[in-house]
Amino acid sequence: MLVSPLPTIRELALDSILVDESSEGTLTAMTPESAIVELRRAIPSFTVDSELEGLSYPIFNDFARFICSEAEILQYLASEEEALRLSKVPACMTFLEHVLQEGDSPVHDLVSECVETLSACPRQEQIKKWIQPKVAAIWKHQQ
Fold this sequence. Notes:
The protein has 143 residues and is mainly α. It has one domain (9-142). Helices cover 59% and strands 4% of the residues. The protein has 8 helices and 2 strands. A two-stranded antiparallel ribbon has the order 1-2. The longest helix is centred in the middle third of the chain and has 16 residues, at 56-71.
C-alpha cells in the first residue's frame, strides 16, 4: 500500500497563497471560504457534511471532532513514523498552523473556535504532541 507523504508547511503555504488577478497580482489573505477549500484539499479524509455547506464555524468544529477521533489511534503507536503514516493528527495540526499564518482575522477566529473544541477532547495530550507555535499560543490563552 502506497502512502503519500504529508505536505510540508511550506508546500501548504505555497499552494494556498491566493493571487487576486483583478488587483494586478497582489496577494490576499486566506478567507474562511478559501480556508475551507484548502481544508478539503489538505485533509481529503475529512468530509464536510452537506448540511454544513457555507457554515464555516460548524465545519471547523466538526474538524476539531475529526482531529479528536484521529487522536485515538495515537495512543497505540510506538513511533513518530507510525503516527505520520496512520493518523491524520499531524497533518491536521500542520493545516491549522498554516491557516493561522495565511488567514485573515475571521480565519483566526475559526481556528480559535476549533482549538476551543479540541481542548475538550479526552485525547488532547496526544494532540498536543503535534501542536505548533501559533496554535499552541491559542491553546495556552484559552486555558
